[in-house]
Amino acid sequence: MVLEWTKADEEAFARFMLRRRWLNVVQREGVVTVAQLRALSEEQLREIPNLGPLSIADISAAVSDRALRPDDPIEMLALPAARPIRERDEELIRMRQQGATLAQLGRRFGISRGRVEQILDREGW
Predict the structure, then answer these.
(1) Collapsed DSSP state (helix, strand, coil) of residue 104
(2) What gap in Å lies between CA 35 and CA 43, rounded to an integer?
(3) Residues 6+ apart with CB under 8 A from 71
(4) CATH top-level class for 18-77?
(5) Which residues contact 44 (CB under 8 A, 6 or more apart)?
(6) Burial, 93: exposed, middle or buried (Cβ in 10 Å; 0-12, 13-18, 19+)?
(7) What does each of the 125 residues of the chain score in pLDDT, given as a tens digit?
């Protein structure tokens, strides 16, 4: 089965996704919805233990996504759970064949652009 690469796919991959660890940190502070996360200032985020400048910048970028509704759970911002490596690699290759960039693939699968290159090289791409 060949998956079609659509404009909606591109938009979904462009959305910022957050590391599970960062979501766990803000959830421990009682934040469970996008509205609650948006309500926190950068200063308030800096006061939360285990959040640094990178995580705060990524959180700010993620909550600025207009596709998110205030009542959406912050779980919508989580990187997808890891899948079996072979299955992930096969989908990664299919998406590359359909025109996905290395950066898009890295964001989609929660791996670095360099790791995407390694996988593609190993598979003869």
Answers:
(1) helix
(2) 17
(3) 33, 34, 35
(4) mainly alpha
(5) none
(6) middle
(7) 444 556 655 555 545 678 888 899 999 999 999 999 999 999 999 999 999 999 999 899 889 888 889 999 998 888 766 667 788 899 999 999 999 999 999 988 889 999 999 999 988 87
Query: What are the residue ranges spanned by the domains of the chain?
Result: 7-13+80-122, 18-77
Sign of the dihedral defined by the CA atoms of residues 75, 7, 108, 46, in that order: negative
Question: For residue 93, what are the CA distances in angstroms to 17, 87, 88, 100, 101?
Answer: 21, 10, 9, 9, 11
Helices 20-28, 53-63: axis angle to 10 degrees equals: 90
